[in-house]
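Posting for a labmate who doesn't have an account.
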Amino acid sequence: MVIERFLDTNILLYGYDLDAVAKRGIALALIEDGWHLLGRTAISVQVLQEFHVNFTRRGHPASEAATLTGDFSLWPVIDNTLALFRLGLSLQSRWQLSLWDAMILAAAQTCGARELLTEDLNHGQNYGSVRAINPFL
């Protein structure tokens, strides 16, 4: 199965944000698509880590965060590796990104995703083989 898109952490977080009603609806639809088309939407270990930290910072129990990250682990998950880190450093330099954004982009490229759904990169910009899409615009 071909991975079509990669979801950044903010997409997952908005899916559980009761204060961001409009963004929550869009994020939930993207998450549901990830379940309906299992194997076509990827995330990374970094996304799982960031989700867990930010979800619990917002007052949710760590046990709920652990359950959700366990569920999301059924999707294709790109591991943090030395090769991924080196690619992230290269992309950071090439595109003048923060290391964390570059690592998300590296994970999206590594899994072959054509789209990276995120608020954090320039909407519509092609970063090599991956196009950044802000679904909230």
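Reply:
Got it, the structure tokens are right above this. The chain has one domain: 5-133.
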